[in-house]
Amino acid sequence: MFLSLHHLTIASHIKxxxxxxxxxxxxxxxxxxxxxxxxxxxAQVVSLxxxxxxxxxxxxxxxxxxxNYHIEDKKMGEGSFSLTSAMNGCLGGLVSITGGCGxxxxxxxxxxxxxxxxxxxxxxxxLVRARIDDAVDAVPVHMTNGxxxxxxVGLFASSDRLALAYGEVGDKGLFMGGNGTLLGCxxxxxxxxxxxxxxxxxxxxxxxxxxxxxRSQPADxxxxxxxxxxxxxxxxxxxxxxxxxxxxxxxxxxxxxxxxALSHYGEGNRRLRYNIEEHKRKSSVMTTSSTFDEExxxxxxx
Length: 302
Prior knowledge:
- The chain is mainly α.
- Helix content is 63%, strand content 5%.
- It has a two-stranded antiparallel sheet.
């Protein structure tokens, strides 16, 4: 049974739904940790954590969505409301509020989330310009906003909220009247984590690179990593069309010297697309779908 090309958007829909599942799971992550706090103020801390988690995620989602629209509108004359930007911005907001969800005021959670959405967009574009492959934007979402969330605690932590959660207050956020001690401690924590990860992982990746395991071969990337490394059935990775949407019709709708070649890229979201490649043809347009499959595979292998 052939599948319509519009069914390929199912993967995108699943990705967006997974973002909401992660959002829901974050309540178990943040509020679940707060439940372990014992004392008469437990209910207040848990409710504050849930509220701040919600506000930061929503704020980051909106800021990322609207700013991305503005950037596209400025560059191309027409913007789009990108759900990918919205969902990744939302996840960035969740990451950023995790460190301070129990010690900042709700208005501060909105600010932290709003900044997180902007940082996600900026760092994502920096990676693209630097030609660093991060298909799922893990660095912008987790590293960038993890650093920002840790730093934000030193800016927005409230003495009242700290007292409710921990009972003792040594210092509070710089923007809340603190003397900078807490901010300094947060910065030391950030530097320690960065140093620890670098010291452990840099030699590891150097070894992988030396052994030739750091990345796959270009031919394997074109074929699809699922097929090459996990031995999945190649036919699952193909793009099929409805029988009434024969690809030969699309070929004939272009110049007779044009051919619709199929290419796909494994890993990540398995981005599938059609590429129109101009070439001189010695024979007529394909007459059977099997011929189309054979020719497409030959072109992929060359």
